[in-house]
Amino acid sequence: MKKILLMFVAVFAMVTVLVACGDNGDTDTADNGYDENGYEENGDNGDVETPDVTEITLVNNKPETDAALNAFADVFYAETGIRVNIVTFGGETPYAASLTAMFNAGDEPEIFVIEGMTDFVIARDSDRIFDLTGEAWLNDTDVAFNYNGGVYGFPVSIEGYGLAYNRALLEASGVDPSTMTNVEGIRAAFEQIDAMSDELGIEGVISLAAGAGMTWVTGIHGFNGYLALGMDFDDASILDDLLDGVIDEERMLLFAEYYELLFEHSIRTTLLTGGYDQQLGDFAIGRTVFLHQGNWTDPAFAELGIDFDMGFLPHAFLPEDTNGIFAFVPSWYVVNGQSEGTEAALQFLDFMATSPEGHNYMVNEAGMVPAFNSVTLSPEGALSQSVQAWANAGNFYPMLATNMPAGFGMNTLGPIFEQLASGAIDPQEFVDLVRDAVENIGPNE
Amino acid sequence: MAKAKTRKHSPVFYLFLFPAVFALTLVIIIPFILGVYYSFTDWNAVSGTQVNWVGLQNYTAVFNDVTFLHSFIVTSVFAVINMIVINLVSFGLAMIVTNKLKFTNIYRAGFFLPHLIGGIILGYIWQFIFNNAIPAFGNTIGFSWLAQNPFLAERNLAILAIVIVSTWQFAGYIMMIYVAAIQGVPASLLEAAEIDGATYLQRVRHVLLPLIAPAFTISTFLTLLNSFRIFDVNLALTAGGPAGMFMGRALNTTEFLALNIYNTAFAFRELAQGQAQAVIFFITITTIALIQVYFNKRKEITM
User: Which residues of B touch A (CB under 8 A)?
Assistant: First the structure.
């Protein structure tokens, strides 16, 4: 018995030592970790001897833009003699963890990416974020990352979504898209198209999926309409009320009635049981006129060989006209203020935002919708072009739903939307359920 | 004698024991203790943040959580149905493949095969079957009920769908246990019963069943436990859907316990509360399993 006890003590001791080793070794292993995994460093081909900092590092979180960004860094090098090393994390290497490891290892990048307030707070608390106030390109964009009067983030690109439509089918139906800027216009258009189903060869008016696993479409993108439609870009008062546990019931009822309209005109099997592929597929093969998705579907359509023209209309659920889609910046570049390369980093961002080469990189090479108004180029994807047109015209509302508590949109609101979709509840019950759910995220929690 | 033997255990004995104990400690005992500890804290899995002791706060939150209560009920119902169906089907299959049929080995392999496919893949395959193949089949044979009622869009049908898939996955495996047990029954006993004039059903009921009772114990134990812990098929097939109402709240009607815990921890980012749920989950299935084994054991007989 004693020996067995001794045995256990020995095992525990060993394990403890191992665990402790793991802790101490953290920085070392992290250091090696990102070298091995996905440290896609641009080759350093013999720098020229120039004063000041000649080499900076940018950490990128989009593997799909890595090649284009490297090519652009070469252009910048030829222009200025400053080498920008592009390090890309993403895909199999988690961005946030890898970036943290880099900081821990003391190998700090000059430029890195934040995806929103949470990232920003972490970076700010480590006292690294550089205030970009006074940069020339700020006059050219509306969507830099602002916080408490300072400007901290360079918008990487714009993504947008709305009521995507198949232009050929919409024209064939004879509906004038310019009438679809309020709920009555949309209702009339949907009913007219529904009546022409056989002529158009469609099985539903809109392709929408609201089942389990697709609740990001309804609970996040959809619900954002309630929070943002028709509001000023900086006005987050509805969101603030929601976070305090209060909803605007009148507005919520209009919102619910709009979604009831969309659900009633969806292909029912796709609506209740379909996934992303099914939803896109229905639209792509012309089974519906509309699609409830954003310009991130462009690559998928390109892959399917779809080349019909598409565009966006607003999700205008209010009786009054609201002429704008939802657009947001998925990520921002921030500059590390605790580095000697700060000047070079600012120069690089400025070059990207203001030079023709920079515009070429953003639009033609990386296929992104640029966040700068002076860019005259257009991306290849039809929906991206539409997002750009809406954004350039200044007709867009923000994405606020991502600031709701974790899980609330997809897991709490999602099932409520799904009930409305299946017809189990009516819009008034939808309002009641949302009110109850919102009360629970009130200040007490 | 026995005592003398134990005293002789040499250091080599412990050396041989060491790898197993070491691995067990490292991957089971320590994580388990840590998990129980975290369930009493505000742990959020972000390294470097302070972990504070919060007492029973997570547990009160769990008991006030309607979705967890719902999960508990729906999982229990599912587990019982699933246990019964799997055991009936696999016992039936075992009876078939132990008969003097041709190609019994092929049947055995065929019935066992689904068990070799991962639950996630199985879930997606069957999702396609339920969403596309069955409605199409309904249209073809003119049975429109099948076409108009997607299995995964209605709660009871969706639970039935999970039962079907998990039976399809597990029946072959449990069948093997029954086959081994049936083959272990001496033919002489069955023959004696036959000579005494017992019918086939009587022979099965009064001779075969009592003799393979240990197989029932282990099979019901395994299937009940697996049904309670089901996660992969649940996630891939229904992801918790369809939505429904429970105690005035809209929630996912087929979100079983494991999936509910997963969502609490990773969708709502309440990791410590998820830990508390996991502890309750552990206590529940341990209790159920022990009770069940205790009662089944009493039915077993020795030869």
Answer: 9, 14, 17-18, 21-22, 25-26, 30, 130-131, 135, 150, 152-153, 238-245, 248-252, 263, 267-269
